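User: Run a structure prediction on this.
Assistant: Running it now.
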Amino acid sequence: MIYPDIDTISNIELSDEDIEFIDRIVEEIGRGEESVIPILQAIQDRYRYLPEPILKRVCEITDITPSQIIGVSTFYTQFRHRPVGKHIISVCHGTACHVKGAGLIQDALYRQLQLSENNDTDPEGIFTIQKVACLGCCTLAPVVQIDGITYGHLTPDIVPKVLDDFLSSSYKLSHKSELDDGLIISEGEEKGEIRLGLGSCCIAKGSDKVRSELIKSVQKHKIKAKIKRVGCVGICHQTPLVEVVMPNKRSYLYAKVTPEDVESIVLRHFKPKGVFRKIANITSKIIDKALTDESWNPITRYSISVRDPH
């Protein structure tokens, strides 16, 4: 049996907070047998798995029986019966990823984390591996996603580097605060809009870092522009993709943009506010040209199309 009989669970004392939570969701969802699935979903949303003492409490205050909970929670794969790790590794097994070796990637993850076939969480409780049907970024196959960060074009030998990169990356600390706000608007009347694709493929190829630089550049030069995130752009091979839309609706599209390209793109379309900022910008460009060859490369090499207003 995957899950023990709830009647055999020892009387583990629940905290007042736990009792208050389960009593509240039962009151909101219902006490009948038909409420078993939404109640289990609410429990897992909070605890990330189904704690046995909580399930026993459900049986005590509802008409739901232990056998019903066991039957439902072991039938649907969405429910977990063991604690989950701090970070979730989702291994894509869609058609494209399967053909390109998703099974080998998952095997490599299991070896690296020293997991047995029947255990999906490492002993330290850091990572839990789960198999998913599709992550929606087939052009990057094979793909894994760790807490929303996508890693593509994987091979078994670079799996250790992927885990090290995730654990050492400061990105995971700022990911939520930077990507959840959806829209950044500068103060004053808007002089245009900068759109950035932030679909799965875009983020996997560094669009989140490009967005950080866009925000910094707009704030640094006090540009009156709106930075807007958009979903899948449909041309994953060209990401990170930036579109600049001017007040006259004329649009400029830039492909494969790197964080280093951002300031040049911004300053090409928007004038920095203030005389001193303009002088500082010109001085900076002169110094760059004297010390490196990078500034000699025209930014137009990134532009893939210019859309005329209709």
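Confidence is low (pLDDT under 50) at residues 1-11, 174-186, 286-310.
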